[in-house]
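Data availability (excerpt). The following record was deposited with the supplementary files.
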Amino acid sequence: MTLTLTPIHGLPLYQKDDPLTSTILEAIRVEGIELRDSDILVVAQKIVSKVEGRLVYLGDITPSSMAHQLAEMTGKDPRFVELVLRESKSTLRVRGGTLIVEHNLGFICANAGIDHSNVKGLYGSDDDWVLLLPENPDQSAENLRREILGFSGKNVGILIIDSHGRAWRMGVVGTTIGLAGIPGLVDKRGDPDLFGYRLKVTQIAAADELAAAASLIMGQADEAVPVVHVRGFPYPLRDGCLQELIRPQEQDLFR
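Predicted structure:
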């Protein structure tokens, strides 16, 4: 098995309503890649959010009393905290500089995934602009998959990824927040190991494994590689969704 990940360069600094699909396909062509069925495109959340108009000016936000309370505890701008609350189902942990929340999409993350990095405002100070995650990343991935099929005739998988921290571990890692045409989990229960033992609990978070690999190529700062082309994914493509990767609360031992 050979798994090949290729950075896609030359993509623009996207703004709201820019043509995401056509620009990605053109950049792939310039890289000399001919799309094939079962290829995968890993796409950074930021460009999806920008095209979908998820850029927010903090000057337009009026913080609630709860936002003010949490801002005092964390040292964060209360307007930023208000956005975190709006994007979250619940607040799980509060520490200086960080709010750990259950995002409206179902996963646990810091500050509801709201970010200042690689964000340029439309007016005023860039420090007063933040970017929210897509409202429905699974749908965003499916829309992109269908448009690519329409343009190219090729059935590809799409991952939309973000950088998240993890319980008990330092640093961030690429994590799937939306997917289409690719499995989130691959169930190996019942498969034999080298010695014939039948696996009982093994389910592979294949989408997250690929997200982490692609994130190595994308980088976290000024690399300007928001799309990675993947060939050789070792599992059959199928319809998938983010919910596969979300551990049910009754099974969550870390809350």
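Summary of structural features: The radius of gyration is 19 Å.
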